[in-house]
Amino acid sequence: MTADSFVHRFVGASRPGAPTLLLLHGTGGDEDDLLPLGRTLLPGAALLSPRGKVLERGMPRFFRRLAEGVFDLEDLQLRTHELADWIDAAAAEHRFDPAGVIAAGYSNGANIAAGLLLLRPGTLAGAVLFHAMLPLEPREQPNLPGVPVFLTGGRTDQMADPAGTERLAELLRAAGADVTLHWEPGGHSLTGAEVEAARRWFAGHDAGTGA
User: Tell me: the pLDDT tens digits for 139-156?
Assistant: First the structure.
């Protein structure tokens, strides 16, 4: 495993001691999609943005699905562990602290970030999950004591069922994570209001995230 195992962008931190934001795009996105979002969420942070390896009708994703909302769980687990291993390889190549990685993902990217929390606890120091749902029920409850997580959902989201978002929040809290759940009245689109709410959350968790 090397940093080149994923097509990616890396932007070094411009602020001493700033964490690294792992930017995880939604279906059809790429390594450039969320760079502006990362700069908005946490100015001065390093940005690490991989492109998903799975293609669905030509659109990059981070893991396969069998139908809308129905995930290939075997592939999800394989890809989650692969991404976790790649973060370590990227940290060695780009010389950032792997203990200071915070995920910021949307939709499919948020779901694999949730997979990292559930299947590879310790990989992420925190996470912002825009329109995530529970990707899978882990066999063993992870240990996530005090890990800060900002989770958003849409009350009328047809892609990420609100009940699945609630279940994800419940499971993360049971694992000890410090979860903030933010609801938007609409559907699956990422709104300016939730981005601003996430930016304020980052500001309020300055010490907890190492920002």
Answer: 999 999 999 999 999 999
Q: For residue 206, indicate whether it is catalytic.
A: no
CA distances from 204 to 85, 121, 180, 201, 207 (A): 30, 23, 12, 5, 8
Residue in 85, 188, 189, 205 annotated catalytic: 188
Sequence ranges of the domains in the chain: 3-209
Cα(58)–Cα(84) distance, rounded to whole angstroms? 24
Clarify whether 107 is annotated catalytic: yes
3-209 is a CATH 3.40.630.30 domain:
no
Annotated active-site residue in 8, 33, 131, 157:
157
4 is an active site residue: no
Decide: 31 and 7 in contact? Cβ < 8 Å.
yes
- Rounded mean pLDDT of 26-40? 97
Please pick, among 8, 25, 49, 107, the residue that the annotation labels catalytic.
107
Measure the CA–CA gap between 46 and 22, rounded to whole angstroms. Answer: 9
User: What does the radius of gyration of the chain's CA atoms come to, in whole angstroms?
Assistant: 15
State if pTM tops 0.85.
yes
State the residue for tokens 């933010």: 182
3-state secondary structure of 186: coil
E strand or H helix at 85: helix 73-94
